[in-house]
Amino acid sequence: MDEDxxxxxxxxxxxSQVNASSSRAxxxxxxxxxxxxxxxxxxxxxxxxxxxxxxxxxxxxxxNPESISxxxxxxxxxxxxxxxxxxxxxxxxxxxxxxxxxxxxGGRISPPAKRQRIPSSExxxxxxxxxxxxxxxxxxSSSSASSRSASTTxxxxxxxxxxxxxxxxxxxxxxxxxxxxxxxKSTFRLTEVLGLKSDISFAIIxxxxxxxxxxxxxxxxxxxxxxxxxxxxxxxxxxxxILPNWVMTVPFLRNGRxxxxxxxxxxxxxxxxxxxxxxxxxxxxHDWRDIENAVWLQDLPPRSDPISHDLKAIDDFPSIMQNVLxxxxxxxxxxNMLANDHPNLPLQTIGDxxxxxxxxxxxxxxxxxxxxxxxxxxxxVVTGHTRLMKAVRDxxxxxxxxxxxxxxxIESQGSSIGTYSTxxxxxxxxxxRGESAEDWLDEPKSKxxxxxxxxxxxxxxxxxxxxxxxxxxxxxxTMFCRTNQWEASKFPRELFHDSNSTGGRVLMHxxxxxxxxxxxxxxxxxxxxxxxxxxxxxxxxxxxxSDDIEIxxxxxxxxxxxxxxFTPSAWGTLSGSGFNPVLNVxxxxxxxxxxxxxxxxxxxxxxxxxxxxxxxxxxxxxWIQEESQLLRQSQQS
Length: 637
What we know:
alpha+beta
């Protein structure tokens, strides 16, 4: 390890310790020292015993195939949950004695209510934003304010790196320049996402830019890791051993064009638990230290008995995730590991992902883009912006058509700007509304080409915002807009809005779409467009056409978080006909979509200040790297 890496790791550890003590909503009282020390000792012993038991059971199952089913029922799922439940019960009893409060655990052993680290004042707002299932609402059902306070204290007593998020959690990443965050939001550090390195039995990780020497230090040397990386100029799929126990795989890129831009992790733990992570951050220190990103993660328990393979399951989260793994060339990398030094991996085949873990509490929709040419409806609707369309429909959030149609206002925050046309932005917008791509393709091309810009806000940092950020222009090396794009005659400059983090004066690498509804007629209707609220028809006044889908009353929109920038390369370009559609996608991308139920949800999820300030014509200009002399000088030095 070189000196720079040593210093970086030391700094990261120091910052992690500082953040762990400063970011908690409720601090640990000094009066708990004696009791807490004893509890921590007992906790460490219990965890070690759990690992030993799991290891012993795994070894027995390998040597005695007939005992696999029995072992699965007792270890790791049953023993893991029972041990954790007992530790939780003992800890809450200690808290009762310390605070003199009637903490009500109700005899419950469900992990979600015990592991989420959410201040009581934020539980209601965040439960929907985090897409928690109904079981998490039991946190709110305590009989008194004092019991809620004690429960919150217990939750905050646990370090984030030891918390389990059974209902999912979306947070911004920690940033050393915004401690604490101005918006008070909880954050994730990479060490907190991964947990204890000694607990990880296997990992599959993906990133566009990767510092191998840096990320390697976050795993135990003996842990097998498959890393998905960017292809070389040939674009050919390859696998290779890059370090002991590490295999790098790269997917196919047509003509070597495009990016493997996905950022995800599948973390398999020795207890049997699986953690799924969808991120906007690359695996480089800069992304986790100097700029802001976002992370969604969810923990999944192992099934007591694996389910059988279901050929009809093609559209749920695990099925789509399995397709992603096949697309990014995981299959040969996994086979390589199994055939060589790691025959007992928790994932023996890609199909095991759905069969061996319980995905029932995962409520978000997974939206991938798979690079390549996709032809025909079965292939088109599982990738790119047409997959987004399908996800919006599945959530019951289609806008509908006709007089009762609801229009979508899209605010798209990203770090890279594309080459835009009115046709492509309207094409994406059509899918974002949940409207059929078939209907879009059936419209004459001449009519599509003449559409005006839809209600889309492109949220990207202005030159002034970058200049005024903590790191200034020298910190703008991961934000991309070109001069020839901005100055093109038909470029949508009027759609640009400034990007300012709710956390402080840092730049954001986060890719996020906030989509909210407002009543409006179809973009293809030409008669009597509404001029104001007084002329807009509400659902209660006008019935939709017979072929419309009625949207739900509760949600007011949806949000996307992931690796997709707002570009044709990321989301794809649609062509062909309604009978035989074709979607061309340049990049590999991955993100999640979930509904937003109210204005509080929107503000809780949004990483940027809203309403985003619109660029002033003639005064504002986006951050453009090639125009910055300071950045060029810093890169050359």
